[in-house]
Specification:
Blueprint lengths: L17 E6 L6 H15 L4 E6 H5 L1 H5 L6 E3 L7 H6 L8 E3 L12 E2 L6 E5 L1 E2 L10 H5 L3 E2 L2 H13 L4 E5 L20 H8 L7 E4 L9 H9 L6 E7 L3 H6 L6 H14 L4 E8 L6 H13 L4 E6 L17 H25 L4 E6 L7 E6 L4 E5 L8 E5 L1
Parallel strand pairs: 1-2, 2-3, 3-4, 6-9, 9-10, 11-12, 12-13
Antiparallel strand pairs: 5-6, 7-8, 14-15, 14-17, 15-16
Helix pairs in contact: 6-7, 8-10
Length: 398
C-alpha cells in the first residue's frame, strides 16, 4: 500500500523519512523493545516520523504516545490508512493517537511478502472470537474474520507467477477461517474448503498450515493432508497445558484426551509427520503436580518439538483473578525443563529419519559458504552453498 503511494522501502539501518514499528502484545517486553527502537531512530534520524502500530498500539495507545519521539499511534482499524495519516503529519507536534474501539474493527486485509521468494507467509484470517483467560489478542485484533476463498486463490496464483514455491497459511485463529470480513459466517466457507481449493493451484509446490487449534483440526483436514502432495506433513498445534484442570482455567476449548487423539491420528496416517506444540508454563494455579502432568503428557506424545512460553501477566485478562500466582523463578525453571524435553524430542525425530531421502526446499541466503533448507517434514538441513539449488526442491539423504 505504501509503495502504491510512491514510498520506497528502505533497510532499517538506512536513514528514512518514515519509520513504522509494528508491535506485538503476545511476547513480553513489547513496551521496552518499542522504547529502545524509538531511541535508536531518534539518535540516528531525529527529523524522521515515527509511527507505532500493531497489537500493543491497539491495547495501550496512550502509554505509547508518551514515548519521546513517537509522532503517531495507529490502532487496528486505522493501520491500513497509514499513507493518508502520514500526509497529515508534521514532526514536532505532540503524538497523535488514531486508535479506535476494537468493536469497530471490521474488514479483512490480505497480506503476503513477496521479497523472500522461497517461502511466503499468506494471511487468510484475522481476529479471534475465543476468550482464553491468558490472552489479549481478541482485544487487540477484533472479531474473527476471513478472506474469501476466491481471493486467497488469486493471491496464491500471483505468488506462483512470482516464482514462490512454498506458502505458509497464517491467521490469528486459522482453523476458524470462513467468517466474512464483517465477522459473520454468511459465506459458509470453511478451512477444509480452503485447503482443498489451494491444493489445485498450479505452480505452488508446497503449503504449510502455520498453527491450528486442536478442536478445529478435523479428521477431514488431517486425512486430506495425508493424501496431498502439496500440503506438507507438518502440523503446529497449540496445547498450552497437559493438565485438564489448567486447560479449564485457561478456558481452552478441548481436553488433553482430544489432543492425544489428534496426534494419534496424524501419526497413524503419516508416521513421518512433524508436530510442533505450543505450551505455557507457570500459569496461575499451576501446581508442581499439574506441571508434572504436562511434562509426562508431552513426554508420552509422539511430537517433534515444543514452543515453550513462560506465562506473563496481561492487563484486563481473567487469569489475573486466579490464585495462587506461580513465582517467576519457578516459571523459568519449568520453561527450562520443557525446552530440554523439546531438544530431546527434535533429536529423536531427526534420528528416526537418518538415511532416508526426503525433499528439501533450499533457501537463497548464503552464510559462511553454507545454505539451509527444510525437508517436507520440517527437518532443517545445512549444505555447502550451491547456486543451482536456490529455491529448488532437491532429493536429499538425511
Amino acid at each position: 500500500m505504501m509503495e502504491n503511494e510512491g514510498f520506497v522501502k528502505k533497510e532499517f539501518d538506512d536513514i528514512a523519512d518514515v519509520y513504522v514499528i509494528n508491535t506485538c502484545s503476545v511476547t513480553d517486553n513489547a513496551d521496552k523493545e518499542c522504547r529502545q527502537i524509538v531511541r535508536r531512530i531518534q539518535r540516528k534520524s531525529p527529523e524522521s516520523l515515527v509511527i507505532i502500530t500493531g497489537c500493543y498500539a491497539q491495547l495501550k495507545p496512550k502509554e505509547i504516545s508518551e514515548i519521546p519521539g513517537v509522532d503517531l499511534v495507529l490502532g487496528a482499524a486505522e493501520k491500513f490508512n497509514i499513507a493518508k495519516h502520514i500526509a497529515e503529519l508534521s514532526k514536532g507536534d505532540s503524538a497523535k493517537i488514531s486508535s479506535c474501539d476494537i468493536e469497530e474493527v471490521t474488514g479483512f486485509n490480505s497480506s503476503f511478502s513477496i521479497n523472500d521468494r522461497t517461502r511466503t507467509f499468506l494471511k487468510v484470517q484475522d481476529g479471534c472470537d475465543y476468550t482464553c483467560s491468558f490472552c489479549t489478542i481478541p482485544m487487540a485484533r477484533g472479531k474473527s474474520r476471513s478472506d474469501s476463498i476466491a481471493n486467497v486463490i488469486r493471491n496464491a496464483e500471483e505468488l506462483a507467477a512470482n516464482g514462490v514455491k512454498e506458502i505458509v497459511l497464517t491467521g490469528v485463529n486459522l482453523g476458524d477461517f470462513g467468517k466474512g470480513p464483517d465477522g459473520n459466517k454468511k459465506n459458509e466457507e470453511s478451512f477444509f474448503d480452503l485447503v482443498q481449493a489451494l491444493d489445485k493451484v498450479e505452480g505452488i509446490q508446497r503449503y504449510r498450515i502455520s498453527s491450528i487449534e486442536p478442536n478445529l483440526l478435523t479428521n477431514d483436514i488431517i486425512t486430506f493432508v495425508a493424501n496431498s502432495d502439496k500440503f506438507m506433513p507438518h502440523f503446529h498445534i497449540p496445547l498450552q497445558s497437559g493438565s485438564n484442570k489448567t486447560l479449564g482455567q485457561m478456558r481452552r476449548r478441548y481436553k488433553r484426551e482430544l489432543y492425544a487423539e489428534r496426534v494419534h491420528l496424524i501419526k497413524t496416517l503419516m508416521p513421518h509427520c512433524a508436530i510442533g506444540v505450543d505450551v505455557i508454563v507457570g500459569f496461575p494455579g499451576e501446581t508442581g503436580e499439574d506441571f508434572k502432568e504436562t511434562f509426562d503428557f508431552l513426554h508420552s506424545l509422539d511430537v517433534s518439538y515444543l514452543h515453550v512460553f513462560t506465562y506473563s501477566e496481561r492487563d484486563n485478562t481473567h487469569a489475573l483473578t486466579i490464585n495462587p500466582v506461580v513465582p517467576v523463578n519457578v516459571r523459568y525453571e519449568r520453561n527450562k525443563t520443557l525446552r530440554n524435553l523439546s531438544y530431546m524430542k527434535m533429536q529423536y525425530f531427526t534420528e528416526q529419519h537418518a538415511g532416508q531421502t526426503r525433499k528439501v526446499l533450499f533457501e537463497g541466503h548464503e552464510k559462511n559458504g553454507m545454505m539451509e533448507g527444510y525437508t517436507d517434514n520440517y527437518i532443517k538441513i545445512s549444505a555447502p552453498f550451491n547456486a543451482e539449488w536456490v529455491n529448488g526442491i532437491v532429493d536429499w539423504k538425511v
